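Title: Comparing notes on inverse folding

I've been comparing how different people in this forum approach sequence design from structure. To keep things fair, I'm posting one structure and asking everyone to reply with a full sequence. Here's the target:
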């Protein structure tokens, strides 16, 4: 009403507390906080702190574990390399060397302790990547390092203990192949070598097939027995001989060198399990007792694989392998006006291994292969060519040429001593 005083609604009126009341001198905010808010925040903080500690512990101990693994790898590699220096003759010394070298390395602050069984020796097969632990002439060592709770040597954790992880189990294994630096001979007649009206040379299979005029710098030959050089013999490299007098004759050789030690005789090959399971059926022959004949003119193709034959006779025909192959021979191989060609014409792709005292006879023929025949003889005649390498009890070449494939490694040269981690 005009002239009358207006009253504010009750909810908007200011309240003046009377003096002496607890709220005196303070304005009410009109809003209250929950009484237990501070306790809730504390609980959340505790959980967050536990999570952060867990993440921090994982980060710290993950780095610690990775460092320990790297230390273990270095120790195992060093132990393996030390062991191969004693192979193949002294496996006891090799094991002791591996254990001593491992102990000189620390893993997570402790010396690495190897047990006797952690060091294993064998022959490394570069093709199958398998270590043959039954070999009497080991060239490789497999070292396995173990730090586990079962052995009482786990790697201790630090911050991870706060979330229940007190230790970590670690293990690492490496296989090391040694090279003693001994001479390697690609054309070797262990007990005898006779060359007449024939020659030796070298070529590089990566450049294609052999060719007349190919480099002859590494056409070296060697024998622990008698070396005979007849009329027209030409050695495109050095003659390595063991027995006096030094060989003489022939029309050419680059040099003659007396060997201080005899060339090593490779172990006699054995078909092993392949005697009962092989690729013979792929070319129409039985698993055992296979006498192979190719006498029809033209080219026959054989798939890659491992074969076991009692004999092979190829006359006027060509055999071309379509994949890497290994042939174990229980008898002789005879090539007459024929060709036996490795896959891609690379000798390393065809290995012929003689298991008995038999022979390889090459007459006016071509063979691309790596021949291992420590108890068999190799006889060449006519305009023949053997491209690859040959190690036999005896070699007699009365015609043709033996071309060593440089891709097979050094011939008549010492490979640098050392070792290689292969697995």
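Reply #1:
Here's my take.
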């Amino acid at each position: 009403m005009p002239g009358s005083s207006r009253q504010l609604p009750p909810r908007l009126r200011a309240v003046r507390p009377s003096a002496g009341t607890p709220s005196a001198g303070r304005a009410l905010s009109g809003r209250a906080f929950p009484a237990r808010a501070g306790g809730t925040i504390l609980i959340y903080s505790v959980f967050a702190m536990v999570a952060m500690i867990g993440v921090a512990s994982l980060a710290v101990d993950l780095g610690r574990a990775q460092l320990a693994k790297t230390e273990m790898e270095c120790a195992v590699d060093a132990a393996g390399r030390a062991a191969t220096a004693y192979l193949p003759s002294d496996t006891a010394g090799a094991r002791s060397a591996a254990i001593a070298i491992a102990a000189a390395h620390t893993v997570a602050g402790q010396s690495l302790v190897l047990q006797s069984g952690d060091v294993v020796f064998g022959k490394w097969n570069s093709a199958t990547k398998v270590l043959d632990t039954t070999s009497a002439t080991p060239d490789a060592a497999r070292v396995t390092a173990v730090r586990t709770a079962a052995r009482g040597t786990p790697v201790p954790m630090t911050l991870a203990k706060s979330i229940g992880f007190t230790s970590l189990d670690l293990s690492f294994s490496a296989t090391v192949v040694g090279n003693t630096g001994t001479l390697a001979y690609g054309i070797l007649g262990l007990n005898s070598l006779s060359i007449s009206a024939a020659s030796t040379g070298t070529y590089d299979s990566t450049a294609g097939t052999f060719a007349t005029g190919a480099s002859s710098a590494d056409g070296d030959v060697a024998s622990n027995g008698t070396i005979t050089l007849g009329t027209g013999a030409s050695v495109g490299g050095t003659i390595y001989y063991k027995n006096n007098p030094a060989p003489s004759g022939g029309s050419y050789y680059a040099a003659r060198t007396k060997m201080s030690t005899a060339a090593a005789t490779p172990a006699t090959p054995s078909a092993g399990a392949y005697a009962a399971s092989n690729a013979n059926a792929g070319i129409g022959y039985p698993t055992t007792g296979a006498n192979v004949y190719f006498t029809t003119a033209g080219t026959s193709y054989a798939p890659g694989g491992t074969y076991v034959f009692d004999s092979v006779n190829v006359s006027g025909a060509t055999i071309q392998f379509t994949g890497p192959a290994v042939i174990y021979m229980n008898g002789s191989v005879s090539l007459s006006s024929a060709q036996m060609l490795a896959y891609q014409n690379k000798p390393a792709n065809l290995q012929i291994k003689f298991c008995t005292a038999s022979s390889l006879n090459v007459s006016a023929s071509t063979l691309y292969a790596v021949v291992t025949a420590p108890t068999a003889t190799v006889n060449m005649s006519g305009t023949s060519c053997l491209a690859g390498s040959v190690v036999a009890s005896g070699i007699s070449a009365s015609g043709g040429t033996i071309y060593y494939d440089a891709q097979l490694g050094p011939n008549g040269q010492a490979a640098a001593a050392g070792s290689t981690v292969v697995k």
